[in-house]
Amino acid sequence: MDHKITMENLQEIIQSIPLLSASASRLLQVTANPDHELEEVISLVKTDANLTARVLKVVNSAAFGLMTEITSIDRAISYLGERIIVSIAIGDCAGKLFEKELSGYEAAGGALWKHDLRTAIAARELVVQSGADISPDLAFTAGLLHDIGKSLISDYLKDTAPDAVSQISSQDSYDYLAAEEKLVGIPHTVAGYELAKAWQLPNELCEVILHHHKPSEAAEEARALTYAVHLGDNIAMLGGFGTGSDSLQYHLDSGYNEYLNLPPKVLDSVMLEVDIEFQKLEQSLEGMGG
């Protein structure tokens, strides 16, 4: 395979990927609006029989250990919360992208889902701990989707990992993003951004996907959210859940303090919370990412 990707190649790849379902797309639009209400989420889920069935299956799974079965979709959504509903909707539509073996990053199938889920949990917790004026559930969704572009360019990166790591080692200013661009022409951030636009995702999510390694370049209205995902991404990698050869091969932007007022030693408590929440969510969402 020719390792270089043109924008035309990328659009062909994107066209081969199923669109998000109408209900999943609308769900992402609604939950990105800070003034939305849970009733809107419930109404949306009710319009999709498959999503309704999946939500009821998840809420009654062993992961939650409920004494009494929940048969009402209203109760199920209220119990699970928006972040899990969004995870189910995304997983049902795009599960294959998350499950894919990332051979170009030397990562096994399911590694992307685990990394993204941990990033999502961390980003949400960082927003909560900082008291930032950002929806915690939007931070979760952004974390879940931030690396989706890796699935699109991974095959083109096959056998390039040693070159990429070698280039980074020899140049201080270099990181894996620059290596991707040099080796295949398009980094995973741009690939993910183009997919996000094709899926008609809300602007804030598109900004996070494009700028999560360089959050200072995000649009002002999405910058705090992008910093939360940037930091959450690094926390996931520090916890041993990266996506293979690129793990911890990016620069940390310390400017997050301007946007997230985090108390001292918060990263330790966030990492602990990520471990606890990950165990619960991974079990409840089993089958969507590995």
TrEMBL record:
Residues 17-215 form the HDOD domain. Signal peptide: none annotated. This is HDIG domain-containing protein. It comes from Malonomonas rubra DSM 5091. NCBIfam families: HDIG (TIGR00277). It holds the Pfam family HDOD.
